[in-house]
């Protein structure tokens, strides 16, 4: 379930090492077949040089071709049979692991956000009548409906149905996560139970640390407290256990994060990145078990991945507001606006707004000493209903005149443009969103146009008198309680 990210890290670093050794052909040969999906599509992409990767871990008892996993493997994994197709049985197509990994363009600390699998959300690009449900089910719901529709049209080739169903399912999952988090998704990696087992086995096992002893017949987890070395089957039990844990799925999420931190630490500590034979083994297994998007330039991404291999990564669990029942299912209740704000502010820490200038500079702006107010158009290109009006209201409270407010075509990022004599105020407004203002001769004098992207939030704007109005509600990632604080890389984290 979690091997995709570790494989991705291993692949890109292996690529860098092998290319440096003049053995690029080995990289290309072993990576052939990984970039086989086109599910990313033409959605928004990062424009600041950073890379956002979505890790999709399927709790499926089938391989990438839809064929059942051998029962011998399933018995080792305590994963049941391959016949079940729904959550109550086994072998369905739930995405029991969804982690967004943000890798900055400067080689700095990477940040990962885990999305609890039972979060009740609006689906995006889902095929079929169900447009809302647990986030883990967007994949399976879309896959099943897509296959039913294709069969109704006369398609009966099993492999074609599997391929097209999974592509639609990946697209729905990617779009749903993008909508929930409000950030672009540049690439993805998908893996199932067999891939996870293969990863841990190929590594020769993985070190983990537990705060308390555990025993669970459902997952097969039976471990003492403390640091210990787990083989492939034990490692899978470690990250799959939720029964018997105080916080259920939330504690399982911390297990998943700790496993990823441990794997990246182990890859470096054991010198695997410098061992050509072991790297080739990882790449060979990855080719069998991992699906990645066709647009991922693994060789080009290699340099960015250095922060991951050095353990410079921090894992967060996105918050839930409580528990509820929807369609007779237990679900996590979430606040999408709060989640988007948390993700945005974690990746783009709010900057102190510049103090209003006291000397006139010809801008005519509200805080610049000019006589007339700058008029600001606010257009919503990020898809969040009502955001343009909220942003316009915040700017109005800061002393700016409100111009046109409404929706516009989807855009990948927030932009701020200005007409003649509005430069100073445009720069102040742009600073609120962490972007640069650009002159636009097509705008009227004294006019500013803000186009909001997917990650935009309502800013806190200084008033013309230099006083800050009451700030918009803010939210920070949880640091205590059931969801706990961050799980940090660079070692072997100890978890419940």
What do you see in this structure?
It comes from Actinomadura gamaensis. Residues 361-372, 482-496 have a biased composition (Gly residues). With 496 residues, this protein is of the alpha/beta class. The chain folds into two domains: 3-318 and 479-495, Aminopeptidase; 354-473, no CATH class. Helix content is 34%, strand content 20%. It contains 14 helices and 22 strands. It has an eight-stranded mixed sheet, sandwiched between helices. A five-stranded mixed sheet has the order 17-16-20-18-19, with helices on one face. A three-stranded mixed sheet has the order 11-8-22. α13 (387-397) links the parallel β16 (375-380) and β17 (401-407). The chain is globular. The model is unreliable at 17-21, 81-91, 352-371 and 464-473 (pLDDT under 50).
Quickly name the level 1 CATH class of the largest domain: Alpha Beta
The poorly predicted ranges are 17-21, 81-91, 352-371, 464-473
Radius of gyration, rounded? 24 Å
Number of strands: 22
The level of helicity is 25-40%
What kind of sheet is the major sheet?
8 strands, mixed
User: Could you say which structural class the secondary elements and strand pairing correspond to?
Assistant: alpha/beta
Give the domain tally. Answer: 2
Sheet-strand content, in percent, reads 15-25%
Protein name: LCP family protein
InterPro entries: LytR/CpsA/Psr_C, LytR/CpsA/Psr_CW_biosynth, LytR_CpsA_psr
Domain Cell envelope-related transcriptional attenuator: 94-268
Domain LytR/CpsA/Psr regulator C-terminal: 374-454
Highlighted features:
Aminopeptidase, five-stranded mixed β-sheet, alpha/beta, 20% strand, 14 helices, 496 residues, eight-stranded mixed β-sheet, single chain
């Amino acid at each position: 379930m979690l091997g995709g990210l570790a494989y991705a890290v291993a692949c890109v670093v292996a690529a860098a090492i092998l290319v440096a050794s003049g053995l690029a052909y080995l990289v290309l040969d072993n990576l052939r077949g990984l970039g086989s999906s086109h599910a990313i599509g033409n959605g928004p992409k990062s424009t600041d040089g950073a890379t956002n990767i979505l890790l999709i871990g399927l709790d499926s008892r089938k391989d990438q071709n839809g064929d059942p996993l051998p029962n011998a493997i399933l018995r080792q994994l305590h994963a049941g049979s391959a016949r079940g197709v729904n959550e109550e049985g086994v072998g369905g197509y739930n995405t029991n692991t969804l982690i967004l990994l943000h890798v900055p363009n400067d080689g700095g600390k990477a940040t990962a956000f885990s999305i609890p699998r039972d979060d009740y959300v609006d689906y995006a690009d889902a095929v079929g009548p169900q447009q809302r449900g647990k986030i883990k089910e967007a994949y399976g719901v879309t896959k099943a409906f897509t296959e039913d529709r294709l069969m109704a049209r006369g398609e009966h080739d099993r492999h074609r149905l599997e391929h097209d169903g999974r592509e639609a399912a990946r697209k729905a999952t990617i779009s749903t996560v993008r909508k929930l988090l409000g950030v672009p998704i540049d690439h993805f990696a998908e893996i199932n139970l067999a891939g996870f087992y293969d990863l841990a086995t190929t590594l020769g096992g993985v070190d983990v640390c537990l705060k308390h002893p555990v025993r669970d017949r459902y997952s097969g987890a039976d471990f003492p407290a403390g640091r210990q070395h787990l083989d492939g089957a034990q490692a899978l039990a470690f990250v799959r256990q939720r029964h018997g844990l105080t916080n259920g799925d939330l504690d399982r999420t911390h297990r998943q994060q700790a496993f990823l931190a441990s794997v990246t630490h182990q890859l470096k500590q054991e010198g695997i990145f410098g061992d050509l034979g072991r790297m080739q083994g990882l790449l060979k297994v990855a080719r069998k078990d991992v699906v990645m998007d066709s647009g991922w330039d693994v060789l080009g991404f290699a340099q960015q991945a250095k922060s991951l291999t050095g353990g410079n990564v921090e894992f967060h669990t996105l918050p839930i507001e409580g528990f509820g029942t929807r369609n007779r299912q237990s679900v996590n209740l979430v606040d999408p606006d709060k989640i988007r704000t948390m993700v945005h502010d974690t990746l783009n820490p709010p900057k102190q707004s510049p103090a209003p200038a006291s000397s006139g500079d010809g801008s005519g702006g509200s805080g610049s000493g000019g006589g007339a107010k700058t008029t600001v158009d606010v257009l919503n290109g990020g898809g969040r209903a009502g955001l343009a009006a909220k942003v316009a209201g915040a700017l109005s409270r800061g002393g700016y005149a409100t111009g046109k407010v409404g929706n516009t075509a989807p855009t990948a990022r927030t932009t701020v443009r200005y007409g003649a004599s509005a430069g100073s105020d445009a720069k102040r407004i742009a600073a609120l969103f962490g972007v640069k203002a650009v002159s636009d001769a097509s705008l009227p004098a004294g006019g500013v146009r803000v186009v909001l992207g997917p990650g935009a939030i309502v800013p806190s704007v200084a008033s013309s008198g230099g006083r800050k109005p009451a700030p918009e509600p803010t939210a920070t990632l949880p640091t205590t309680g059931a969801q706990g604080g961050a799980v940090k890389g660079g070692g072997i984290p100890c978890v419940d």
